[in-house]
Amino acid sequence: MKQTLLLLFLTLLTMTTTQAQQIKTQLVEYKEGTTTLEGYLAFDPAAKGKRPAVLVVHEWTGINDYTKKRCEQLARMGYVAFAADIYGKGIRPASAQAAGAEAGKYKNNVPLLRARINAALNQVKKMPTVDGSKVAAIGYCFGGTTVLELARSGADVAGVVSFHGGLGTPSPSDAANIKTQVLVCHGAIDPFVPKEEVDTFLKAMNDAHVPYQFNAYSNAVHSFTNPQAGTDNSKGAAYNATADRRSWQAMKLFFDEIFQKETAAGIK
Predict the structure, then answer these.
(1) Which SS3 state, helix, strand or coil, does residue 130 take?
(2) CB count in 10 Å sphere of residue 230
(3) What letters, b where the CB count within 10 A reaches 16 and e where it falls short, cover 200-209?
(4) Close Cβ partners of 131 (under 8 Å, ≥ 6 residues apart)
(5) Assuming Cys at both sites, which of 79, 108, 225, 256 could form a disulfide with 244, CB separation 3.0 to 4.6 Å?
(6) pLDDT averaged over every residue in the chain
(7) 229 contact partners, CB below 8 Å, separation of at least 6
(8) For residues 253, 256, 257 and 259, what is the CA-based torsion angle, rounded to 10 degrees?
(9) Is 149:169 a contact under the CB 8 Å cutoff?
């Protein structure tokens, strides 16, 4: 019996190791104007043909282990995943104060923010393994705000998903530029996104007749997908396992729809 269990354990370990080895990751330098950016690419090198791709936009701390983990999850699902670098190569704020200052540069300069995320979109579309007609973008917190600005810029993407992102923009009427589908995964009691901001966002989307989904998760505050945020809702940012699981499933269903699952063989 012990030998059987040991054999089963070794088999599962081998399977897990083999699966992990299938995913290749690498840093990719690219440019926006004269600024050098450094994204993080994850993909399955064994996959054949061109694949759908997902841009992943970081939180206010820049590309970090959490961003990379999400890219690797997407790569294991069969997508080419590319973490966009909004801040620039080597700019990775180490404190909340520094992160707030860096994020503020782009929130106060939406044309620059849109230029940075469109540079990442252009980079991923020209990758030889990517089907340029099947690219989506997802983002977390600051990244959620960023992918919404990508959509408002009129970018040609299949869809965007914001996880606990800010919904405000200097020009709500720019929703009229959106040519894609939108999924917003929102913490129902997020203190950093007030009701007025939500209402203004929804009105702009409705007025522009944008095809969108807005999911609000009960008892969820800001950063509800990130375990590193802790579990104390009173701090305004906290992990919520239920909201994390449900929002990820919502994203997967959204991707099935926008990428037309039957034409994306191998996507799980």
Answers:
(1) strand
(2) 12
(3) ebeebbeebe
(4) 50, 51, 52, 53
(5) 225
(6) 91
(7) 222, 223, 237, 238, 239
(8) 140
(9) yes
